[in-house]
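Notes to self after the call with IL:
- keep both proteins in one doc
- input above output, always
- annotate only the second one for now

Protein 1:
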Amino acid sequence: MTDTARRRVRTAILISGAGSNMAALIEASRAADAPFEVAVVISNKPDASGLTVAAALDVPVMAVDHRLFGKDREAHERAIDAVLMDHGVEVVALAGYMRLLTPWLVGRWNGLMLNIHPSLLPKYPGLDTHARALAAGDEEAGCTVHLVDEGVDEGPVLDQEAVPVLPFDTPETLAQRVLTAEHRLYPRALAAFCRGLH
């Protein structure tokens, strides 16, 4: 096996909160055959608890506080992009990153930025996915990993995992089961994507 075949794709994870999907990706990156490594975790919120989790796992962390940039979203994203460049990042994984991205950053990472969404897209883009699935009487819900484009949760689907809707589900119980599926799906989808880059 050549060095090229063994090389791991340097991946950044962007978070805004606790980072449970981030933790699943970091854990998956530790596997001997993982095709990606987590080069840095970045949050727009300095107090995001996921930063503490990542640091405890010996992953470099960086906070780029969006509040310091006022309403200039692109300036904030340019600061994030500078961190990505400093860490030699090749792929960006959004994991509970709660900022709408500008066309500048989406274009900068076109085809190299992934997101996970808690519905079976194209159903229920945006928020309140579980309540919407229950209100529609759906028999299954689930999660989707997709490439990020300028639309909201509209980019090309890379992989999905379905979860059955149970008779007495609430948005909260369904959300918990979907989140468990997300922790399986995201590492699998990111690994497949990174293998395809070699």
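Protein 2 (the one to annotate):
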Amino acid sequence: MSNADPLEVAKFNDVAARWWDPESEFKPLHEINPLRAGYIEDRCGGVAGKRWLDVGCGGGLMAEAMAYRGADVLGIDLSEVAIQVAQAHAEQHQVPNLRYQLTGIEALGAEHEGQYDVITCLEMLEHVPDPMAIIEQCQRLLKPGGDLFISTLNRNPKAFAFAIVGAEYLLNLVPRGTHEFKKFIRPSELLSWCRAFNFELQDEIGLTYNPITRTYKLAPDVSVNYMVHVRKDNP
């Protein structure tokens, strides 16, 4: 728990039981998950047979999506309720090649060093005290040439207006208090941390929401919600 905010963990424990309800506060995640999963699969050139780590897996939306695509997936999270929900859903649906563990990334230890082909860390960095340390651990656990996908929120006035005022207070897309603006991360900051640990940028993409049609799409606009694909240097 050294790189975790107990209040953030408690916040997700309180709502995790509803993770797989597509009409709950997790509805946006259900709607964007196919978009992001397809993007990640395309960027990886296919995921079947790859060893995958999903950091901050929550209830398992991305972990299950990749397991169904043939990856060998380990999902980790510090929310005990989220892990219980993820495990129960995977067992109920007999999802292949999928395991969960209640742990932080630091605790995986040296025995996992250089073991993973792909790591996903989605909507997680803006909830931890030291996001750069998470990137360092991802670098340690990835194989040379391995892929890392990170999604988070940009820190600027537009992101405040859309992700907090709009999403939390006007449109009620997510519960109020889900995010703290000061924890949002500019792409320039995120990429500087990645470069510090020998990652090379492969691509970046934004996620936009149309409140009229109530639909999401991937787009070049990274001003609010965005994802980067970086690759560990292959010496």
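Annotation: The longest helix spans residues 27-44. Strands lie at 51-55, 72-77, 98-102, 116-122, 142-153, 199-210, 215-219, 225-232.
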